[in-house]
From TrEMBL:
Coiled coil regions, renumbered to chain: none
Bilayer-spanning residue ranges: 29-51, 63-88
InterPro entries noted in UniProt: DUF485, Inner_membrane_assoc
Protein name per its UniProtKB record: DUF485 domain-containing protein
Superkingdom of the organism of origin: Bacteria
Keyword annotations of the record: Membrane, Transmembrane, Transmembrane helix
Biological source species: Zoogloea oryzae
A Pfam family it matches: DUF485
Amino acid sequence: MSSTSSQSAVYARIRRNPRFAELVSKRQGFATILSVIVLTIFYGFFMVVAFQPQVIGKRLSEGSYLTVGIAFELFMFIFFWVLTAVYVKRANGEFDEITAEVIRDASKEVK
């Protein structure tokens, strides 16, 4: 049996594994939720800039140089880093465990 056909057989077993379908579904759902959150916040901010610029330019307090826009941008920067950390934690935990299980099952069938 050639190496290419052996790899194709392993890939076929991986795709047939119900845990692989679960992994794809969970990962896609999680990525979609995070994407919607990021895009809503990001484009929501730009909609406010476009249609309510006076809100963005408002100072946080009397005599402050910090505006609502700068504070919200800082919030977005930190929030997006936190979302990235959440994704990485889940990817390195739950998703990697399922991936290892699927690969282990596929390699058992090869031997």
